[in-house]
Amino acid sequence: MADSGARDRIKVTIAQLTIGMYVVELDRPWSETAFLFQGFRIRHAQEILLLGEVCQFVWVDAQRSFGVKQQVEDNLMRLAGEQLQPQIAKVEFSQEMQRAEPSFHAAREQSLRILEAVRLGQALDVAQVKLVVKECVESMLRNPGAMLWLARIKHSDEYTAEHSLRVAILAIALGRELNLRQGELEHLGVCGMLHDVGKIKVPAEILNKPGALTAAELVIMQSHASEGRKLLMSNQQVTAAAVDVAYSHHERLDGRGYPRGLDAARIPYFAKIVAVVDAYDAINSDRVYSKGRSSLESLRILFEASGSHFDAELVGLFVRRIGIYPPGEIVEMSNGEVGIIVACSQLSKLKPRVLLVLDGQKLPGPERVIDLDQAVVDQQQRPYRIKEVYPSGAFGIDIEAYRRKGLIIPPHL
């Protein structure tokens, strides 16, 4: 997914194929089919029928196809607009934020201590990990909005530790939609906190390399899964599930993952959950070798890889939970103004409320909230619509500062 060519390759089922799409890869070797060319544009309906006889899905090149990217976007929007089983928050967002902040910061400190203990060859304090995860779960059962908001605040100098905490929180949020019991959510959260512990064994010059890794360096980087398994197996307080997740969260349903190339049936369920949220947070975050993508782009990448890399049901549920327009995302409007998504109602998830903070020249302007679910127009009487979505922090906007001023209050989740 790192290069533009990989991003332009989109997985499409046979039923989704249309004339004009450019097929670049099949779900089986070309040599096992009657097609003469390894890559072609579909020009006749008969070619779709022939593909359907030998394949279940193919990959198409979006740049050389007609309409495929719009089709993916439409499917993603449809999926995000579907309703989840309503779960009523027990307390208001602002009230829960007061309780959640100390728990979040305690969990962040614990995540830092995990890495430091491994670095120094000390035993992991698993009991303390379980305690901070328990507090996170209890907060999310009261109102998940607070913890999910806190997870949006990122510090690039502590990526590995904060990433582990965010994965734990996102995994708990997904587990909550799977109706897991509280004990199971706590167990899943611990798996998320410990999933990347093996990275401490990867040399910093490889872990933080700004350019592409060599083949030898990639092998070392991928060894973090096996190293994590070794570290966690040496601690009797760590459950087998946590060991499995550390070892298996980079396995893929099509058997092309690492370190063992497991197929879908052999990948542990908690590892499948963590794989989804781990990939989302990695794509959504700034790293030394890439800028973080918006939530919309991150979800699109997950959606395209569902069924091959990630469990399709889990991806679908995660897309509906996070939403296309989560609070805190930065959006540029069609007239050039810039705002922050402040809320999105469950009944109109594709038309959020937006706090406008920059004018069309990207300069600070009068702050005001517009509701895209209403017929709102700009000064030229043109309807407001979202042109582009950016990750938190774009245009130098500090979303947390606006939250502290009381201007961003996410709805119950």
Radius of gyration: 22 Å
Question: What general form does the structure show?
Answer: globular
Reported for the largest beta sheet, the result is: 5 strands, antiparallel
Order of helices and strands: HEEEHEHHHHHHHHHHHHHEEEEEH
Which structural class fits the helix and strand makeup?
alpha+beta
Could you describe the 3D structure shown?
The chain is an alpha+beta fold and 413 residues long. The chain folds into 3 domains: 4-66, no CATH class; 93-322, Orthogonal Bundle (Hypothetical protein af1432), CATH 1.10.3210.10; 330-404, no CATH class. It is 45% helix and 11% strand. It is built from 16 helices and 9 strands. It has a 5-stranded antiparallel β-sheet with strand order 8-7-6-5-9. It has a 4-stranded antiparallel β-sheet with strand order 1-4-2-3. A hairpin with a 5-residue loop joins strand 7 (353-358) and strand 8. Helix 3 crosses helix 15, helix 7 runs antiparallel to helix 8 (182-194) and helix 7 (159-177) crosses helix 13. It is globular, with a radius of gyration of 22 Å. The chain starts with a helix and ends in a 9-residue tail after the last helix. The mean pLDDT is 87.
